[in-house]
């Protein structure tokens, strides 16, 4: 593992390797790195996967088979900034497949319970517009959506 920056550790209950491969399949600029295994010292079963280092969308992660003690919650989410509706649709579809679920305002949970915000970069510009009415219209439209619809957001922003 390289030094500097951050590596996000995701805690799984036996699904670390499966999850790492899944995320690498969803995001570009992704790859699997070093895989470590439990030793005879335990507490996991010797020889089973302990950690899987991986990169997803250029970000460093390690998936850890830590056991059932902890689960994911919406208190931590990963924001995916998208350039267009095609990217929004891709990430929304892939991350809600096989048991994931869409939520409000561009948020979703994947099949492992990890929360993601699938957000067009343009929305950040709209909601931070110096014109408070334009910003409020864009924000109000976003609040009514599940998967974000960039064209509808632009229309609300423009007052159409």
How would you describe this structure to a colleague?
A hairpin with a 4-residue loop joins strand 6 and strand 7 (107-109). The longest helix has 12 residues, at 85-96. The model has no long low-confidence stretch (mean pLDDT 96). The chain contains 5 helices and 8 strands; from the N terminus they run E-H-E-E-E-E-H-E-E-E-H-H-H. The strands form 2 sheets. Strands 1-4-3-2 form a 4-stranded mixed beta sheet, with helices on one face. A 4-stranded mixed beta sheet has the order 5-8-7-6. The radius of gyration is 18 Å and the shape is elongated. It is of the alpha/beta class.
What is the strand and helix layout of this fold?
Blueprint: E1 8-12, H1 16-26, E2 31-37, E3 49-56, E4 59-65, E5 77-82, H2 85-96, E6 101-102, E7 107-109, E8 115-120, H3 121-127, H4 132-143, H5 150-158
Parallel strand pairs: 1-4, 5-8
Antiparallel strand pairs: 2-3, 3-4, 6-7, 7-8
Helix pairs in contact: 4-5
Key terms for this structure?
four-stranded mixed β-sheet, 160 residues, alpha/beta, 5 helices, elongated
Shape: elongated
Rg, rounded, reads 18 Å
SS element count, helices: 5
First-residue to last-residue Cα separation: 50 Å
């Amino acid at each position: 593992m390289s030094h500097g920056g951050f590596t996000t550790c995701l805690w799984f209950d036996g699904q670390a390797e499966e999850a790492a491969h899944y995320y690498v399949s969803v995001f570009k600029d992704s790859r699997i790195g070093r895989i470590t295994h439990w030793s005879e010292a335990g507490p996991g079963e010797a020889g089973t996967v302990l950690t899987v280092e991986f990169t997803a969308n250029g970000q460093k992660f390690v998936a850890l088979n830590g056991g059932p003690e902890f689960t994911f919650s919406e208190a931590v989410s990963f924001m995916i900034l998208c350039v267009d509706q095609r990217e929004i649709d891709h990430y929304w579809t892939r991350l809600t497949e096989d048991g994931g679920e869409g939520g409000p305002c561009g948020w979703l949970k994947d099949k492992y319970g990890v929360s993601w915000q699938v957000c067009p970069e343009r929305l950040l510009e709209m909601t931070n517009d110096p014109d408070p009415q334009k910003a409020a219209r864009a924000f109000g439209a976003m609040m009514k959506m599940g998967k974000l619809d960039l064209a509808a957001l632009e229309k609300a922003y423009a007052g159409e």
